[in-house]
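Section 5: illustrative case.
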């Protein structure tokens, strides 16, 4: 059975944390794409005490395209699997989807800033 998005993110994060994933420039570039597409344009959602539900839905709707754009040649296979599975989160209830996107965000931040980050 194929792993779920959560499993894929967890496996990638564990590999990074344990030093089994040597982050490449392609990985960092992919993380940058995701940061620019899913975090920077939605700062209002992230900083709001009570985010606008319409903006949350817009952010979740951006997940498939952003993850597709981030699947550049040379990224780690575990990262690629997490990105391939990420659109699954859009089928979840909104609270669960936001939580799943947060898990991806931790991974993206760790990849983008270096493997010394604890995930």
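Designed sequence:
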């Amino acid at each position: 059975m194929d792993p779920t998005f959560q499993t894929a993110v967890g496996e990638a994060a564990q590999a990074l944390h344990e030093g089994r994933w040597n982050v490449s420039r392609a990985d960092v570039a992919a993380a940058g794409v995701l940061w620019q597409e899913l975090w920077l344009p939605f700062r209002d959602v992230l900083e709001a005490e009570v985010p606008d539900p319409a903006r949350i839905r817009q952010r979740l709707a951006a997940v498939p395209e952003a993850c597709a754009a981030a699947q550049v040649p040379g990224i780690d296979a575990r990262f690629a699997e997490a990105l391939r599975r990420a659109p699954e989160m859009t089928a979840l209830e909104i609270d669960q989807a936001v939580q799943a996107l947060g898990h991806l965000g931790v991974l993206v931040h760790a990849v983008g800033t270096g493997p010394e980050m604890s995930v």
